[in-house]
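--- STAGE predict ---
source: upstream dedup step, 1 unique chain passed
mode: sequence only
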Amino acid sequence: MYKGILLGHPLMSECNKFLTRHKPLSHRQWIERIEQSSVLDQQVDFFGTGPTVELLEQKIASILGKERALFVHKGMVGQHSALLHWSSLSNFKTIAIHPQSHMEVDEELAYKELLGLEAVMFGKPDNAIDDTDIKKLPKDLSAICVELPTRRAGFKLPTWQSLNNLKQFSIENSIPLHIDGARLFEAACHYKKPYEEVAALGDSVYISLYKTLGAAAGGIIAGNSDFIEQLKPWRSRLGGDLFTAFPYVLTALWGIENYLPRISEFHERALKLSNLIQQVFGPQAIPYPVQCNGFLVELPIEADKLERRALALAKTDKIWLFDRIVNTGDKSCRFEIQVGDALDDWQDQELIEVLTNILR
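--- STAGE serialize ---
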């Protein structure tokens, strides 16, 4: 099957205009961003402790309305720590996840091969979980995990009512609910709810620091104080105590100040741009309703042909369009647009012209 992963292609570093996510930075630009930090003169963190790490954790905990938060250098470390903690408190070693969740699709089945956990799939492919899926959930679970949004299902989000029904199920059956909220900020924008109201549904919550917030890397796990304290040994056991993580921490603090206030702007741009794409290329061009700043576009061209033309454009015009192209068969393919500051360099009509030309 055609995989079409282009992120990191050598031509990408030669481009100066990008379509999706935030603009990629050079080493020098990362250093310049770090130099803008208001806490640059603070003591450097060591092994997960230090004033800047504590500041970041406090800020995110406050934003999410949780008692405490814990910095992790990688989302897998944080989420696996949470799963191991919840399973240690349970007689069961089975988690419930969506069949297209990040844990199932993108982590080489680490929950099974490394953590020794089994998984029950809940939810249907290319759909968000709904009340029917919740009713089918077994009760012998160590944790329920819900990804907001489910990226591989087309950035799908459950209804707000279904999320509350899932929370009620977890309470009634004493099953911890973990929110894989890598893109929780965008999800909250769709629900028109404060971040803390969405986060309140989870007994534990993960957010990414490098996606919407544009940090160099890293993530946060948030919950009550007792949970966070018990999570620290699991983080250490999974190799999460970096000698120092200041580039991640300082760029995350920069993102809170500069990207977080723009979430609703990115959301509105996604709605506007996707509507224009549908008007020009037809309703099939946007296969799923757009609910957050990320969405799929489908065009009537073979994946390998689109890749060749995109790379040719990158070489001649220094424009980078796609990070990944997925073959959907029948002479069509899909790619993602995740609205970030890269789109600051584009007018919507300009992008339409580029896509139109690349199809010819």
